[in-house]
């Protein structure tokens, strides 16, 4: 009898460890973190004290997370963003305090960058201030995880601002070399690139392409150049996250009088030392701030069709 209990106990332990491995190791820390929404949500009600903003272009760098967080990536990206602003002669302010999203403070910024923001990070009043700010002419740049939540508490953000619902990313393996097709080589964010761009990253997939909404696609990924699947170790098989021929990774669109840019690139800290990636972000901020590039309406009318 004791041996039977030991066998049952051992079996339960093995199954538990296998389950734990599935979520932490095999399913990936990225997705494990993404399961944590609704746990430990925090909101800010005391705004930060802003330094004196000088010059016409001030950049708000925001990296609050109430979901998955990669500290190394966020730190590397924040440093890169601050350096881009410094070289351009722009003022910048980096914060994770959501209370900065109030009209009197937002009006001091021409453009904001969301650096892998995750989870529900703004109160209803803060959401309203943000939406009114961009619709009145603010510029918005969102990087990687800012469009990588499996679900959202704010429909306008995912459906209208980002424009696509994340459904998964590569996990077989997580980081793979793949080729991007540059669809617009005249845009400030992509004009330094050739017809194709091959690099290593974690590659996102979305429920549907934002192209159907009229969003302007700058770059799409060639699914034949990598394996768009999520392996579920220790179980056999994998989950297919293919989108087909139309698999955008970088796009722009109008939001009222404002401009919005999203790039799914940049999961690793090393991404923010890549010259081409940094030039893309530089051009994205410049475009979103309205400093260069065609007016947003002109971009929409020039939208290419899917290959």
From TrEMBL:
Transmembrane regions: none
One Pfam family of this chain: ThuA
PANTHER family: GALACTOSE-BINDING DOMAIN-LIKE SUPERFAMILY PROTEIN, SECRETED GLYCOSYL HYDROLASE
Annotated protein name in UniProt: ThuA-like domain-containing protein
Domain ThuA-like: 59-288
Organism from which the protein derives: Sphingobium vermicomposti
């Amino acid at each position: 009898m004791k041996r039977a209990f030991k066998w049952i106990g051992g079996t339960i332990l093995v199954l538990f460890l296998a389950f734990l491995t599935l979520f932490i190791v095999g399913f990936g820390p990225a997705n494990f973190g993404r399961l944590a929404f609704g746990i430990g949500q925090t909101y800010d009600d005391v705004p930060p004290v802003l330094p004196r903003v000088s010059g016409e272009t001030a950049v708000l760098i925001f990296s609050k997370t109430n979901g998955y967080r990669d500290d190394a990536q966020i730190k590397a990206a924040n440093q890169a963003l601050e350096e881009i602003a410094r070289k351009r002669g722009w003022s910048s302010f980096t914060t994770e305090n959501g209370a900065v999203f109030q009209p009197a403070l937002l009006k001091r910024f021409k453009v904001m960058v969301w650096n892998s923001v995750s989870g529900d990070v703004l109160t209803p009043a803060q959401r309203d201030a943000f939406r009114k700010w961009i619709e009145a002419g603010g510029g918005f740049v969102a990087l990687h995880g800012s469009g990588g939540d499996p679900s959202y508490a704010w429909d306008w953000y995912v459906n209208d601002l980002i424009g696509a619902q994340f459904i998964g990313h590569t996990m077989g393996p997580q980081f793979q070399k793949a080729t991007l097709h540059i669809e617009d080589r005249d845009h400030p964010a992509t004009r330094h690139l050739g017809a194709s761009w091959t690099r290593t990253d974690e590659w996102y997939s979305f429920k549907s392409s934002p192209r159907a909404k009229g969003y302007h696609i700058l770059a799409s990924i060639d699914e034949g150049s990598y394996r768009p699947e999520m392996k579920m170790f220790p179980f056999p098989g994998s989950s297919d996250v293919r989108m087909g021929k139309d698999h955008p990774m970088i796009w722009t669109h109008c939001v009222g009088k404002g401009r919005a840019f999203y790039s799914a690139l940049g999961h690793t800290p090393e991404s923010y030392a890549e010259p081409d990636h940094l030039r893309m972000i530089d051009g994205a901020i410049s475009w979103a701030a309205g400093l260069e590039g065609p007016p947003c309406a002109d971009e929409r009318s020039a939208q290419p069709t899917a290959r």
